[in-house]
Structure formats: structure tokens, C-alpha cells
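Can anyone check this?
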Amino acid sequence: MKGTQQASTSPPPSSPSQKHHKRSHSPNSPNKRPRIENSDSNGLPGSLTPNKTSLLTTEKSPVDPNSSEHIIAINRLQEQLDNMKKQLSMKDQQLLEKDKKITEIKAAQYESEKSFRTKLTDLSKKSSETIETLQSKNRDLEKKNRDLTKQVQTLSKGKKASILAQSNNSNTNSPNISS
């Protein structure tokens, strides 16, 4: 048994005829492609992916994140942000003031319309009352006119009768000149 264990633990033979691969391992073989190996940041071999290549290019380029160009750009952007915040707060304030003015104008318009409606209602009531009193006076005057017309008619009938009577009396009292 010791012999079989030694045979299984012995290294494989190095002759090409005993290898399991069908391809030849010679560097001059036309079918063989060159192998590209990249190492990641740990120095371990890895596959070539877009994320790793971008990391590799940024790690290889000597860019200092605290460089003066970055600080200037950050400061400029911060100033722009501050200016925009100020502009925004100013615009908000202007909008609030305009809203306040609009509210005041609407309130004044409401009060004005309310006053107008009240005046219109009062004028309507007054005109109705005036029309009613004038119509009443007109009816009274028409009634008086009818009464006076009747009195005139009765008086004129009475005068005609008295005039006729006088004329008849004058005919009888006056001498006859007729021959």
C-alpha cells in the first residue's frame, strides 16, 4: 500500500506526450493568443473591466484632490451657490410682497364693491319710495280734478238754468214792442 500512495503523490511526468492538453504550448504556435494580465490596486491579477480601467487610469494619473485649481473651482461654485441663494431669498421676498399687495388690493376692491352695492340698494329703495309717493299724489290730484270737473258741470248746468230762467222772466216782464 505504501507504493500506491507514493505513486499518486509523485509529480506528473514532464514529457509532452503524457500531458492532457491537446494544444501545444510552444510560444511560436499560430493558434495561441497572447495573454493580457492586469493587476488591480492590490497587485493581484484580475480581469479587464471598464470600472477597473477607469480606476487604474485615475490612480495612475498624478491628480491631487487638494490642488489649487480644484480649490478655486470649488470656491467659485460655492460663491455662485451663495449668490443664487441670495437671489432666491430676494425673489421669495418680492413674491411675498406682491402677494401682500394683491391681497390688499383685493380687500379694497371687495370693500369698494360692498359699498357700491349698499349705495345701489339705498338708491333703489329711495327711488321706489319717491315713485310711490308721486303716484299717490297723482291719484289724489286726479281725484280732485274729477271732483272739480263735476262741480263745474253742476254749476254750469245750474247757471244755464238760471240764465234761461232769467231770460224767460225777462221776456215776460219786458214790454212787447211788437205790434
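Reply from J.R.: I decoded it. The mean pLDDT is 75.
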